[in-house]
Design goal:
Layout lengths: L18 H9 L5 E4 L3 E2 L13 H10 L5 E6 L4 E6 L1 H10 L3 E6 L4 H15 L4 H14 L4 H8 L3 H9 L5 H9 L5 H8 L4 H14 L3 H14 L7 E4 L8 E4 L7 H22 L1
Parallel strand pairs: 2-4, 3-5
Antiparallel strand pairs: 1-5, 3-4, 6-7
Helix pairs in contact: 2-3, 4-5, 5-7, 6-7, 9-10, 9-11
Length: 281
């Protein structure tokens, strides 16, 4: 397993000032280094998928310039600077006709780049709940972070991380329906995600749209529907090595479990066991 670099332990997300200030203070990087715009590229793994209209920002940049530098990382093999945060400023700078932009260069691996991009967008509240869910899932899946790891790194409660990740249970077509119908509240989407199947999710979405259900009403509707249906059989995964000297058994409350979810649960269990052993030593 590759060594995790990630954010420094002493660095936490701040809400009273821009996060880049903390990064600059920590790294000692110089602010305002000008880099040709042609050498800068958007982050292909940017958590935020919709950049939106940047015309007003472009007009502001024409008048006052870029007031907040972009945060970038240099990739020598490509001789390119990839954006960690500041993609809207990048696109607005292109529209404004700039040829170079002020940047803070930071040494970061791909995992830390994703962490920094997530945190910056979360702090600005720029991500949709689905974009946030996918970003957190990538940290868990690609870099083997537990929910506790993610919570510590982005400055949120572990329960909040777990809830956000659970929104991935909503299929992509239904996510688009939710977005189109303006159902973007995390609490309501959680009630949709907790439905037993796609048909029930769609019915819940229609009920929320037509009746304007509150979170509590949606929760009661889900509970009533669950009470009237037979309880689904739980999924159990069991592993016994060829030597037969031990057995691992993990049980889920639901009947359908994706491979990625199973692996994430096993990693989380290992992390909890390691922590318990360490505290008892």
């Amino acid at each position: 397993m590759s060594k995790r670099i990630g954010l420094p332990i002493t660095l936490k997300m701040r809400h009273d000032a821009h996060y880049i200030e903390s990064l600059t203070s920590y790294s000692g990087a110089s602010v305002g280094r000008m880099i040709p715009l042609e050498k800068v590229r958007p982050n292909p793994d940017q958590p935020r998928k919709v950049i939106g209209d940047v015309s007003e920002l472009a007009a502001s940049i024409r008048e006052k310039g870029i007031l907040q530098p972009l945060l970038v990382r240099y990739v020598p093999r490509e001789d390119i600077y990839y954006i960690i945060s500041g993609e809207r400023r990048y696109h607005a700078s292109q529209e404004a006709g700039l040829t170079e932009v002020p940047c803070i260069e930071r040494i970061a691996d791909e995992a830390e780049t994703l962490e920094l991009a997530l945190i910056e967008n979360l702090q600005r509240k720029d991500l949709s709940v689905f974009e946030e869910s996918e970003g957190l899932f990538r940290l868990a899946q690609q870099y083997e972070y537990t929910h506790e790891d993610i919570a510590r790194k982005i400055g949120k409660a572990r329960s909040s991380v777990t809830e956000t990740l659970s929104l991935r249970a909503i299929p992509e077509p239904l996510r688009k329906v939710c977005t189109e119908k303006g159902i973007v509240s995390r609490s309501l989407l959680l009630q949709v995600a907790r439905q037993p199947n796609e048909a029930a999710m769609r019915a819940m979405i229609e009920q929320i749209e037509q009746g304007g259900l509150t979170r509590d009403e949606a929760r009661r509707a889900r509970q009533d529907a669950s009470a009237s249906e037979p309880r689904p059989k739980s999924y159990t995964f069991e592993f016994r090595p060829p030597q037969g000297n031990f057995r691992v058994r993990i049980q889920f409350r639901k009947s359908n479990v994706a491979r990625e979810e199973l692996l994430a649960a096993l990693r989380a269990a290992i992390a909890e066991i390691e922590a318990a052993i360490s505290s008892a030593a």
